TrEMBL record:
Keywords: ATP-binding, Nucleotide-binding, Transport
InterPro entries the record matches: AAA+_ATPase, ABC_transp_ATP-bind, ABC_transporter-like_ATP-bd, ABC_transporter-like_CS, Oligopep_ABC_C, P-loop_NTPase
Species of origin: Streptomyces broussonetiae
Protein name per its UniProtKB record: Dipeptide ABC transporter ATP-binding protein
Family per similarity comment: Belongs to the ABC transporter superfamily.
Biased composition (Acidic residues): 413-435
Domain (ABC transporter): residue spans on this chain: 18-268
Length: 466
């Protein structure tokens, strides 16, 4: 049973506040007149994790991997298919509306879309005051006074009490959502993509506000995001999800310095790191190919094996368990990165796996860039034949456009736009797709004149500098 601090009945900092064991949510697929169940979407398929009091747990993963479903399960907005959810040591997995009522004060959710999550017919005062009315709580000084106090806590004008949601910007609406979530002084706040619908400039403000409030009110957060850049600054620990499972759960610094799951590595390599000190650091971009498989019939064994460049036979047949390979780092992989058992040399990689991802080393990109520069100079000086020069110039223009797109996508990835990491990968792939991309095994392409037709690669260092 977790230790409770005496003065406010809260679990002491660092103690387990929420514990999830084998959590599952399968949405049934029904067909026909009789609505017979013909299958199920395995949205969340066996999660095990804990959230400690006072910490921020970030949850990341591609679209459709089950993040929102997980958030709704732990706040008990959805009924789990299997597994267990414990809050402060109490099993809340199957509590009904009445049983959950006292719990509702302690566990709150901030939703992704500030435009649809506020009732347009209600004033701000009514929206933020609703939790008091629903819970039958009369704050000191009355609801209106408390709502106005909350408005000023989240940086809004208390005079705007009688205004309607449409009179506010996206960032202001999200502040309203935060004020509503905080009204009853919750212990745990689950924020589902709290900033991804907002402008880049506003995102930082909202994230900082949440950070300040956490310190001030001793909140515990579970923050869900599409990619690693949002949770990077705020999380103590990060869980990486893939197709309804947690594939890696680690302390933030460990995850960034030495990601162990190949999927985490791929996700991280797609996120530009705006750190000038790391500008020349050696890195590798991993471009995952193919779509996320369907959660209706997830792949056998390791669910990532259809896209993993290290997949071997065991990955196809045996599901790896989430185990602590280093203190503070749990990983579900047969051949983890940054570990003794990297891809075993004597094991045959699955042939499909070899095609699953493209590894583009920075050195190769830089080499191509140099060759391209040299060629551009040669063209300018008339050293290259007309036909060849025209071809390379044309290719250059086209591909430069494509890589600008890629760079723009990368910027949007930095800005934590939804789908950003995916679109950045796609844009990267598009930029390289027309020709055979340069790979670590093919540095020779850099020496051929044909490289002139591949300036997309030559342009890549812009992205790789991130
Ligand atoms: N009510 C529902 N009925 C049927 N399937 C659902 C339902 N809600 C979610 N799903 C499915 O469950 C899977 C996980 O969805 P979820 O919304 O949890 O993903 P997500 O990781 O939050 O994605 P995103 O990043 O796009 O928000 C998806 O395949 C989705 O289609
Ligand atoms: S190496 Fe195997 S177990 Fe590890 S992520 Fe790749 S496919 Fe999965
Ligand atoms: Mg979601």
């Amino acid at each position: 049973m977790p230790r409770q601090s005496e003065e406010n009945g809260r679990v002491a900092d660092g103690e387990v506040l929420l514990k999830v064991t084998g959590l599952q949510k399968h949405f049934p697929i029904k067909k026909g007149l009789l609505q017979r169940q013909v299958g199920a979407v395995h949205a969340v398929d066996g999660l095990d994790f804990e959230v400690r009091s006072g910490e921020t747990l970030g949850v990341v993963g591609e679209s459709g991997c089950g993040k929102s479903t997980m958030g709704r399960l732990i706040t008990r907005l959805l009924e789990p298919t299997g597994g267990k959810v414990e809050f402060e040591g109490k099993d809340i997995t199957h509590l009904g509306v009445t049983g959950m009522r006292p719990m509702r004060r302690d566990v709150q959710m901030i939703f992704q879309d500030p435009y649809s999550s506020l009732n347009p017919r209600h004033t701000i005062g009514t929206i933020i005051g609703a939790p008091f009315r629903l819970q039958g709580v009369e704050p000191e000084g009355g609801i209106k006074k408390e709502v106005q106090r909350l408005l000023s806590v989240v940086g809004l004008n208390p005079e705007h009490y009688n205004r309607y949601p449409h009179e506010f910007s996206g960032g202001q609406r999200q502040r309203i959502g935060i004020a509503r979530a905080l009204a009853l002084k919750p212990k745990l706040v689950v924020a589902d993509e709290p900033v991804s619908a907002l402008d880049v400039s506003i995102q930082a403000q909202v994230v900082n506000l949440m950070d300040d409030l956490q310190e001030e009110l001793g909140l515990t957060y579970v923050i869900i995001a599409h990619d690693l850049s949002v949770v990077r600054h705020v999380s103590d620990r990060i869980a990486v999800m893939y197709l309804g499972k947690i594939v890696e759960l680690a302390d933030r610094d460990l995850l960034y310095k030495t990601p162990m799951h190949p999927y985490t590595k791929a996700l991280m390599s797609a996120v530009p790191i705006p750190d000038p000190k790391r500008k020349n650091a050696k890195s590798e971009r991993i471009l995952l190919k193919g779509d996320v498989p369907s959660p209706i019939s997830p792949p056998s064994g390791c669910r990532f094996h259809t896209r993993c460049w290290k997949a071997t036979e065991i990955c196809r047949t045996t599901e790896p368990a989430l185990v602590e390979l280093r203190p503070g780092q749990q990983v579900a992989c047969h051949h983890p990165e940054n570990f003794e058992d990297q891809a075993p040399q004597d094991t045959v990689l699955l042939s499909a796996a070899k095609e699953a991802a493209e590894l583009v080393a920075d050195e190769v990109l830089a080499e191509s860039a140099q060759t391209s520069e040299a060629l551009a100079t040669a063209v300018a000086e008339g050293e290259v034949g007309t036909e060849e020069a025209t071809a390379s110039a044309d290719a250059g223009t086209e591909e430069a456009g494509a890589s600008e797109e890629a760079a723009a996508s990368d910027e949007s990835a930095a800005s934590e736009e939804p789908e950003a990491s995916e679109s950045s990968e796609q844009a990267d792939e598009e930029a390289e797709a027309p020709e055979e991309p340069a790979t670590a095994e093919k540095p020779a392409v850099a020496e051929k004149p044909a490289v002139a037709e591949k300036p997309a690669v030559a342009e890549k260092p812009a992205a790789s500098e991130d």
